[in-house]
Design goal:
Helices cover 19% and strands 23% of the residues. By secondary structure, it is of the alpha+beta class. Strands 1-3-2-6-8-7 form a 6-stranded mixed sheet, with helices on both faces. A 5-stranded mixed sheet has the order 12-19-18-14-15. A 4-stranded antiparallel sheet has the order 11-13-17-16, with no helix packed on it. A hairpin with a 5-residue loop joins strand 9 and strand 10. The longest helix has 15 residues. Bound molecules: zinc ion. Zinc ion (ZN) binds next to helix 4.
Length: 366
């Protein structure tokens, strides 16, 4: 059975924010969740998942926080996001609704039935953006907004304008969230048979069969024939809508599944377009005095490879993935480099790896 259903939506701004919505937004507050769901980091180089809620009264805010924490855990438990969880931090923005559930006066204008699809859940994008912008402690940098609705109906929406919606109390809500984030972060398309055909601008959909894909070197041609974590082999499987997908099944086809290899690569590349594999380098690359201790902290799974005048040397591993190298004893003019690179086999586009997943830091001993 085709469990996936939500096509990539084209949200429409519903126009000006109503006066009632603005009044409700005045109560916006920022909650920094404590404990393991927090993931709060100081400084930049992180992607923020911002949770907002619609239809939650003041008394229901604890419910909203629990649901947001559950979605956060679900998103960061599916690969490849689990491997890259260090890239993310969480923010929760409280929006107090005058009544429980969606309906007239819901501050974020969330509603079902967008674009004529009953299960498509959309929000008033302008109201959502305003709520996020007005929250104290807002952090700069890349972010995805996840708008939770206080509802038990089934639904959600991903992709498009950086806002993912989810009916937080609905059936399979956590699996829906994993599917929708595939749209929002990876720019992925729906792989199920009843998805609209014709549109193949997604990295996991193609008009070409395997032979023509390989010949043209497009889409997931590098993965053709690979053993896939969804269980089969990467190929070009024809859906009933006429488009080809990479694997027999995946989370973009069935809820509760996992991302296939082409989708993992698309997601990882999207992440590296927004953050650097180098989280911290000290001192800053450049000229350093003899005897300086060089220190590099990669972000996530990237490794640090040191070289002195081009010859590889071993660094010293420190807590938190930091690697250090001392310049003691090195002659003036010696060049030390640290190459920070993510060698994950989930990326086969080596041009992308060199450009976005690799950084070379260089110090010269004075
Ligand atoms: Zn979908």
């Amino acid at each position: 059975m085709d469990a996936g259903w939500i096509r990539r939506g084209f949200r429409r701004a519903l126009g000006a924010v109503t006066a009632a919505a603005v009044a409700a937004l005045a109560t916006v507050a920022l909650v920094l969740p404590a404990g393991p769901v927090g993931g709060v980091e100081r400084g930049g180089n992180r992607i923020t998942l911002v949770f907002v809620g619609d239809g939650y009264t003041a008394a229901q805010l604890p419910l909203f926080h629990r649901q947001a924490a559950a979605v956060w855990r679900a998103l960061l438990s599916i690969q490849p996001l689990a491997r890259y969880r260090a890239f993310f931090r969480m923010r929760v923005v409280d929006v107090v609704s005058p009544h429980p559930g969606l309906g007239p006066g819901s501050p974020l204008g969330m509603r079902f039935g967008c674009d004529g699809l009953g299960r498509l859940l959309c929000a008033d994008d302008a109201a959502v953006r305003q709520a996020v912008a007005r929250a104290p402690g807002a952090v700069p940098g890349p972010r995805y907004v996840i708008a939770l609705a206080d509802s038990r109906r089934y639904g959600g929406e991903g992709g498009g304008a950086g806002i993912t919606t989810l009916s937080a109390g609905g059936p399979d809500a956590l699996q829906v969230a994993q599917h929708e984030i595939g749209h929002s972060i990876g720019g992925l398309g729906d792989e199920y048979d009843t998805a609209p055909g014709g549109d193949d601008h997604y990295p996991d959909l193609s008009r070409l069969d395997a032979r023509r894909m390989r010949a043209a070197r497009v889409k997931w041609w590098r993965w053709l024939g690979a053993a896939d974590p969804t269980g089969g082999t990467v190929g070009a499987y024809r859906s009933a809508n006429g488009l080809y997908r990479p694997t027999r099944d995946s989370v973009m086809r069935s809820l509760g599944g996992t991302f296939n290899l082409p989708s993992r690569e698309a997601i990882i590349e999207a992440l590296y377009r927004q953050v650097s594999p180098v989280d911290r380098a000290a001192p800053a690359p450049g000229t350093v005095p003899a005897g300086a201790a060089l220190s590099v902290r990669p972000l996530g799974p990237a490794g640090v490879h040191w070289a002195v005048d081009g010859r590889p040397v071993a660094g010293r591993a420190r807590r938190g993935g930091t690697s250090t190298l001392s310049t003691r004893g090195l002659a003036p003019g010696t060049v030390v480099t640290a190459t920070v690179r993510d060698d994950t086999p989930w990326v086969r586009d080596e041009t992308f790896r060199r450009a976005e997943m690799t950084r070379v830091l260089r110090w010269t001993v004075a």
